[in-house]
Amino acid sequence: MQKVFGWPKSMFPVPTHYCPGCGHGITHRLLAEVIDELGIRERVVGVAPVGCSVLIYDYINCDMYEAAHGRAPAIATGCKRVHPDLIVFTYQGDGDLASIGTAEIVHAAARGENITVIFVNNAVYGMTGGQMAPTTLLGQKTTTSPYGRSSRREGYPIKIAEMLATLDGAAYIARVSTHSPKEIMKAKKALKKAFETQMKGLGFSLVEFLSQCPTNWRLSPSEAVKWVGEKMIGYYPLGEFKAPEGEK
Predict the structure, then answer these.
(1) Which residues share a beta bridge with 160?
(2) Can you give the C-alpha Rg of the chain in angstroms?
(3) Are 213 and 128 in contact (CB under 8 A)?
(4) Continuous segment of H or E residues that includes residue 183
(5) CATH tag, 24-242
(6) CA distance 134 to 200
(7) Is the pTM of this model over 0.85?
(8) What are phi and psi of 78, to 5 degrees?
(9) Do residues 25 and 5 lie in contact, with contact meaning Cβ atoms separated by under 8 Å?
(10) What are 108-160's pLDDT values in tens digits?
(11) Quick check: 202 and 172 in contact, CB under 8 A?
């Protein structure tokens, strides 16, 4: 019997620590599949930050660095500049990239660092207890915004993809989602294009993944999937915000 589906070679066959219904597992799988399909596993180096994905090195079968909170782009920059033949990526959450790491990601994009960033946006601090993040939606309740986020008190959610797309050093910027099979397939194509952008030496690439967080949203996995489609995408539209000329 012909085998048509199996475990990616670039992903260790082990259970993950993620909560049921979390989007990290889906994103990990897509990352591993893209690495396999591009045939780059022996050249790939990842950078894991502080956050829910802190243990990604236990799941993705490639060389990995561990970075201080928010500093993954700096580590990736150093690695890529010293070893320009390697394919370097960071895997960061919104509490990491959009908060303590804001300056790091903005300047890495502005410099046009030839790295690929996987940005998982679940609109909350996942690992540390569900606090409000820079990406938390207006009206969304968290442990530190129990009455809902207010534009007057906390300001507006930051649209990372749109912001970075304005920078000249950014070559490919896209936002995708893990809330439906159709969008997951689109997400894989965007992630592959981001890595191909780096492999062509075109500059900085980032793919933002809208992702479910049932535990901190106080929703069931099925309810969390609906919440992404009904709430998050309304504020964070999907699509490519910047692509190399002739490739959008």
Answers:
(1) none
(2) 17
(3) no
(4) helix 181-199
(5) 3.40.50.970
(6) 32
(7) yes
(8) -60, -45
(9) no
(10) 999 999 999 999 999 999 887 878 999 999 999 999 999 999 999 999 999 99
(11) yes
